[in-house]
Amino acid sequence: MLIIATYDVSTDTAAGRKRLRRVAKICERIGQRVQNSVFECNINEIQFEELERELLAEIDKTKDNLRFYRLTEPVDLRIKQHGCFRSIDFDAPLLV
């Protein structure tokens, strides 16, 4: 399934900046960054639960915001892209 993970971490303090780096590293391990705080993650249900659990352990729920979007079928109509960024098609053959 395709998940969009977005976050907004308060960086007013050194602790907030540290949280932001940790949240970004978790997301970078699982998905690909498509904007500063937006990641596309092509994962299964177990991976999603793990991602959510890890991120919830990092954020401060009184200062930060974390959102997940599950994109549904039809597959070919899920995403429209405009501009210079081109995401990786995880379902296409890998060319090295």
Automatic annotation (TrEMBL):
Keywords: Antiviral defense, Endonuclease, Hydrolase, Magnesium, Metal-binding, Nuclease
Function: CRISPR (clustered regularly interspaced short palindromic repeat), is an adaptive immune system that provides protection against mobile genetic elements (viruses, transposable elements and conjugative plasmids). CRISPR clusters contain sequences complementary to antecedent mobile elements and target invading nucleic acids. CRISPR clusters are transcribed and processed into CRISPR RNA (crRNA). Functions as a ssRNA-specific endoribonuclease. Involved in the integration of spacer DNA into the CRISPR cassette.
Residues at which Mg(2+) binds: D8
Cofactor: Mg(2+)
Assembly: Homodimer, forms a heterotetramer with a Cas1 homodimer.
GO function terms (MF aspect): endonuclease activity
EC assignment: 3.1.-.-
Family from the record: Belongs to the CRISPR-associated endoribonuclease Cas2 protein family.
Pfam entry (one): CRISPR_Cas2
Name assigned to this protein: CRISPR-associated endoribonuclease Cas2
InterPro entries, per database record: CRISPR_associated_Cas2, Virulence_VapD/CRISPR_Cas2
Keyword Hydrolase: yes
Residue intervals passing through the bilayer: none
